[in-house]
Amino acid sequence: MSQFMVEFTLAEMDDAFMAKIPSQRAKINEMMEQGRILSYSLSADRAKLWCIVNGDSELEVLETISEFPLINYMTPDISELMFNNVVSLRVPMFSLN
């Protein structure tokens, strides 16, 4: 399985866009729990959005992002990654003493 960076250019946020944000967040959370999406980031100006998607091909990534409630407001640009380094949170070991 490969990882893909998807950079989205977002359309102007109208009322219909805003109404779909809760369902978009729910779908993203579901996909993250399933391991299909590893990260999801929005630029401060709300014009760009990035996510790291697991998939076997660009077609599989397209199928994944087609499930987004806001996909009609997004223009995706997909790039396969050679690697993706992330900092994981480390929980300190605790003692049972």
UniProtKB/TrEMBL annotation:
Pfam families: MIase (PF02426). It comes from the Bacteria. Residues 5-81 form the Muconolactone isomerase domain. InterPro entries: MLI_dom. This is Muconolactone isomerase domain-containing protein. It comes from Fibrella rubiginis.
